[in-house]
Amino acid sequence: MYNLILASKSKVRKEILNKNNIDCKVEPSNVDEDFVKNGLLNEGASPEIISKNLAELKANKVSQKKNEEMVLGADSVIDLEGELISKPENRDEAMKILKKLNGKKHNLISSVCISINGSMVWNYTDKASLTMKEMSDDQLREYLSKITDEALYAYNVYQIEGVGRSLFSKIEGDENTIMGLPIGKIKEYISSK
Description:
Layout: E1 2-6, H1 11-19, E2 22-26, H2 33-42, H3 47-63, E3 71-80, E4 83-85, H4 91-101, E5 105-116, E6 119-132, H5 137-145, H6 149-154, E7 168-172, H7 175-178, H8 183-191
Parallel strand pairs: 1-2, 1-3
Antiparallel strand pairs: 3-4, 3-5, 5-6, 6-7
Helix pairs in contact: 4-5
């Protein structure tokens, strides 16, 4: 059993840690993700760099206030042919995102960072590829009608461990990465400490 502070209010990330016998306290970083993303996009940063920087920023911010404690920051982004797709603000936006992803392959990038005393000591970025089925607008609307608001805004437009799996014809990569936490590499790092 390890002690860790999770710099995120993601219930799924906390569940993944708990299932893997990693005890954690939750302290959201409250980083303004959109502000950071927009600044990095304006500088021409890749989706991988944006994901890594956000994970690091979240971990560093919380760990500045924690003496000698390990703080885990995490971030996930969707990369559709070089375009960064962010979480929807409402159901209309969710529909637009699903239409963009419809019938196409995209990458889901998840980055994690562990910081101690306000500085990153370890980080890892993983990528999974998902190919969405070709679906009609009616099928997309029907899918959205099955998703709660909480799930929609927390997991982007699909929840792979739930009804979202039905959207895809092909999923390549670690399911934990898709859910936002490549737990294997985290366990490797913390068990070496």
